[in-house]
UniProtKB/TrEMBL annotation:
It comes from the Bacteria. This is Succinylglutamate desuccinylase/Aspartoacylase catalytic domain-containing protein. Residues 34-263 form the Succinylglutamate desuccinylase/Aspartoacylase catalytic domain. The keyword Metal-binding applies. GO terms for molecular function: hydrolase activity, acting on ester bonds; metal ion binding. The keyword Metal-binding applies. Signal peptide: none annotated. Its cofactor is Zn(2+). It comes from Pseudomonas fluorescens. Keywords: Hydrolase, Metal-binding, Zinc.
Length: 381
């Protein structure tokens, strides 16, 4: 292994005697060699496309390192949630929620909010490298009491030391899309272009939930709006949704890995354009405010039959699915599910049997609601 490639393990507290988990971390290049990027996959342990993408990426990074073409620092966590990956019921991985307390593994990450407020009140302004040192000092002072809390702390500690943070996810069935801050639209579009992602959802500063990328982004945003840093030195983060759970194959993974490398070329982290990536063709990228996204719920219990595919444009009132009643007195009875806005069907969330109130779809729209329901979360559960 090259001298500039470092592989290390981070041990997590044992969940029970004789049972332990650990994170694997690869680092390429040098921390003081230029811009840095952090990538992780599998924070939801049942989302696997990103796991394969990062395996392809690691092969490319090793080759580039041997050629001396990595000029910044690249950190890769190939599986970010060994706890969730180990939660199995027979052959099914139940990796989205912590079975110990029902909490989404991508919620309630520790942040630096109170610490940053204290620094701002004290009038402290510094360089991004000095702020990274401050983040490390603050986060090192936290004392998590559970394995899941330790996992989240270790992940955010690593992420906060980088200039760019990408969290790879997927959904049940969806067109590729990404989430990023509304104030970093240009960076999000560069990433979407490199990965040929057609839909970008721009989050407000108060998206809530303390998701991984939100905690990273909001920390830097707080410094920026208080003039403690400049916009040019602010860190960038995004959650990248790599299509659906079933989209695990070498062709797609190789293309996505090549897209990530091409993004790193644009950012000056590596200097060699990837091969084997997506064919060069223009992808129409649409940006939408997350506050305008519509979550469509199932009205009745039954079998969901979708009438629209991910990526299809839909109109307000148009049927996007039907729910087939299984216990109706009327043979063949179906209930139509309609879009409540004009936009693009991004996610189909419930194949097969659904219960009343279960989310069926997410539609991205540019039409802002007249009023925002403060009780409706912007991020899915």
């Amino acid at each position: 292994m090259s001298r500039s490639i470092n592989k290390r393990k981070i041990s997590l507290p044992a969940l029970s005697p004789g049972c332990s988990h650990e994170l694997t971390v690869y680092s390429f290049g040098a921390a003081n060699g230029g811009k840095s990027i952090y990538l992780q996959a599998g924070l939801h342990g049942d989302e696997h496309p990103g796991l394969l993408v990062l395996q392809h990426l690691l092969v490319h990074l090793k080759e580039l390192d041997e050629l001396g073409k990595i000029h910044g620092q690249v950190t890769v966590v190939p599986y970010a949630n060994p706890l969730g990956m180990s939660q199995r019921l027979f052959d099914s991985v139940l990796g989205r929620f912590d079975l110990a307390n029902g909490e989404n593994f991508n919620r309630n990450f520790p942040d630096c909010g109170r610490y940053i407020s204290q620094q701002i009140e004290a009038g402290i302004k510094s360089s991004s490298s000095k702020w990274k040192q401050s983040f490390a000092t603050h986060l090192a002072s936290l004392k998590p009491t559970t394995a899941a809390a330790t996992l989240k702390l270790e992940l955010i500690k690593m992420a906060m030391q980088h200039d760019i943070v990408l969290d790879l996810h997927c959904d049940v069935d969806c067109v590729s899309h990404l989430y990023a801050s509304h104030s970093q639209r240009d960076q999000a579009l560069r990433l979407a272009t490199a990965l040929h992602i057609p839909v970008v959802l721009l989050e407000p500063d108060d998206a809530g939930g303390q998701a991984f990328d939100n905690v990273y982004c909001s920390t830097w945003r707080e410094l920026e709006i208080n003039d403690a840093i400049t916009s040019a030195t602010r860190g960038f983060s995004a959650t990248v949704e790599l299509r659906g759970k079933a989209d695990v194959n070498d062709r797609m993974a190789q293309a996505d890995a090549a897209g990530l490398l091409n993004f790193m070329v644009q950012e000056g982290i590596v200097d060699d354009r990837a091969t084997g990536g997506p064919e060069d063709h223009a992808v129409l990228i649409q940006t939408y405010p997350l506050v305008a996204a519509s979550h469509i719920s199932c009205p009745v219990a039954g079998i969901v039959v979708y009438k629209k595919n991910p990526g299809d444009r839909v109109n307000d009132g148009e049927v996007i699915a039907e729910v087939v009643h299984l216990d109706s007195d009327i043979i063949g009875e179906r209930t139509s599910v309609r879009s409540d806005t004009d936009g693009v069907l991004v996610i189909r969330q419930t194949p097969g049997l659904a219960r009343p109130g279960q989310r069926l779809a997410l539609i991205a729209s540019s039409i802002l609601p007249a009023t925002r329901d403060e009780n409706r979360p912007l991020l899915d559960a």
